[in-house]
């Protein structure tokens, strides 16, 4: 059988956003695939619950997302970029019984977070627009105007946080809008205004909306969210229903006036778990139905009421799984796990079933359904079956090991597809970001883990202290600025455990990770010479400069309980850059030019110090990419990053007879091979798997 190759990222479809129809007979979902080197194509598909093949529902033109069934099931709303010369998604509605999609909006800021009114007459949504756009009415309709906003020159900054993702805000604020589908012209009305962000519209009834509003103090410097109520008949906000703290309110309204929402304690919030609170608006009583569950909410799934509006459904990381739970809203019983056994990435609750997307060790993601209590589960799609049928995919082995402090740590070992226990293999150690995140055996890392194994590496990954999914105490073990030592102890304890196996070559070990995983990669090579090579990606390397350039500066204030002005020396001592002169390990640095979560200056400083100290190093920067490069970057960049990781490891491995990457130029990279293939008039440009170094 064939083994997994880096370039096959182009052949792997991603499955997202499952939505079960009101009658429970169908599930709509998004199928997303690379479309060339620099963009993706995504269309909505529908699969019958009772059995049968999924059918494409929308045309393959641009990127469709956020499928939402109307309450009666006769229409499907979605957001799409089809037919547009720009990337601003608009709202579309399509009859489910057959017919063409109708474009509902033509607005300047794009559409997101769509929600049907209970009677199906309106759709609420969120749009980001400037004050000028709002004043000129471009946020309610361009009326065919070919409008393209000008890039500010100069860019004048007034906000504390003025950029995120891969873009500058440039005066934009998110506001709540409603499109009236019964109006002949699909009238769009803006409900909110002002220099604040409004998010997550949720219908209380046909004429009442809830939404979150960040407008306390300087909203960039706290996580306080007002939950406001808007009366569409009176055309006014009627007041603040309650106030919560967190990164997203995750609102869910019941028909009797109860309101569920997410709550994270504000003090040291990055070290605290997110709970569900339920407000009874009649009595004013607030309950916390997740209080007895020592797990934090995951944002991949919205909090949802069950069909009887007695139970709430939600998603959490849970000891190597991402699991769906349900709990009585009145906290009369403990939460119970409904769906687990893999990496659930999103789910919705229908009249008598739960639809969800789950990836597992043997596939990167498909649509499943379960009964409301989880007693029965069925797989509805096999989206990547043609690809997987002739690929050798290895099954990870779960391991449990103790660190020096006596804590039990969960990890996994993946061996090559043609594994022979009598042979010897190099070890590749992977470290997750966050730091407050959790890895499973699949999710977004499925391709990378299988790729490294296919290239002949034993792959080890784990969830060291600081990870979610193991309780708040485990997650908060990094408090007081201990990002390095506890995770170092845990990762190296796992390395020791795995390296004791006869088939692991302890002289050929490699390490990589991204974001906080990049921090830990460079922390490790600054404290041990046991690794033959390292690849550090989009890492936080110097905490003082990171604090002043990131949109996530609260991570420093809460995890480290200080700021550069209070204790710059302490933050320097906790930075991997402080140990750059101790590094001998050849280290590749990978970063994105438009990464505004961990700006590239972090990599530039470390690269300069490595060069001055004689470390074998290289800095690879990807234009047009942000912090999500590895997960949703341009397809050619995603492939190139994977190939460069394996090229770097191969060059320092005694098990791969290839030169170091520093000596090879672009040889073995897909982009170079494609150019050579074009130059040779269409010959197959794939290199011999035994000779190339791109992980192929």
From TrEMBL:
Is Hydrolase one of the keywords? yes
Alphabetical UniProt keywords: Hydrolase, Protease, Serine protease
Q: Which terms does the UniProt entry file under GO BP?
A: proteolysis
Single Gene Ontology MF annotation: peptidase activity
Q: Where is the composition biased (Basic and acidic residues)?
A: 131-141, 657-667
Task: Using the record's annotation, list all stretches that form the Peptidase S9 prolyl oligopeptidase catalytic domain.
Answer: 447-653
Ranges for region Disordered: 130-152, 657-696
Query: Which residue windows does the record flag with biased composition (Acidic residues)?
Result: 142-151, 673-696
InterPro entries, alphabetized: 6-blade_b-propeller_TolB-like, AB_hydrolase_fold, Peptidase_S9_cat, WD40
**Does this entry carry the keyword Endoplasmic reticulum?**
no
User: Of which family is this protein a member?
Assistant: Belongs to the peptidase S9C family.
Q: What is this protein called?
A: Prolyl oligopeptidase family serine peptidase
